[in-house]
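Lab notebook, design round three. We kept the backbone fixed and only want residue identities now. Task for the bench partner: fill in a sequence for the structure below.
Input C-alpha cells:
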C-alpha cells in the first residue's frame, strides 16, 4: 500500500511538472541584416528551411504509410489465427503515432539567419 502511495505521489509530481512546463511558450523576433548581401543570404536560408520541412513531411508520410501497413497486417494475422469469434473480437490495429517534427529545420534556419548577419530576440512567455 505504501508503494502505491509513493507511486501516486510521484505521478502527481510528474503531472504537475508537465503542466507547468507546458504553459510556457517561446516566440522569436527576427531582425534581418541591413545589407543586400545579408538579405540574399537569408533568402537562401529560407529555401533550405523549406526543403528541410518538405523532406520531413515526406519522411513522416512514408513512416505513417509503413506503420499503417504493418498495423493492418498485425490485425489480419490476428484474425486469421483466432480460434473463435470471441478471440477474433480481441484483435486490434496497433496505433500509428507518427508526427512531423520540423524543430531541427527551424533551429538550423535560426543559426543560418544569425550567420547571415541577422539578429533574433528570444521571448519566453510563461
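Proposed sequence:
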Amino acid at each position: 500500500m505504501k508503494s502505491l502511495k509513493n507511486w501516486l505521489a510521484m505521478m502527481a509530481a510528474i503531472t504537475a511538472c508537465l503542466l507547468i512546463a507546458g504553459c510556457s511558450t517561446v516566440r522569436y523576433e527576427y531582425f534581418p541584416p541591413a545589407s543586400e548581401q545579408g538579405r540574399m543570404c537569408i533568402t537562401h536560408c529560407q529555401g533550405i528551411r523549406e526543403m528541410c520541412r518538405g523532406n520531413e513531411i515526406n519522411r513522416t508520410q512514408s513512416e505513417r504509410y509503413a506503420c499503417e501497413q504493418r498495423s493492418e497486417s498485425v490485425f489480419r494475422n490476428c484474425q486469421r489465427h483466432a480460434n473463435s469469434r470471441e478471440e477474433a473480437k480481441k484483435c486490434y490495429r496497433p496505433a500509428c503515432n507518427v508526427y512531423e517534427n520540423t524543430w531541427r529545420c527551424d533551429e538550423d534556419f535560426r543559426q543560418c539567419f544569425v550567420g547571415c548577419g541577422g539578429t533574433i530576440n528570444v521571448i519566453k512567455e510563461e
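Keep this in mind before ordering anything: Residues 53 and 102 are 6 Å apart (CA to CA).
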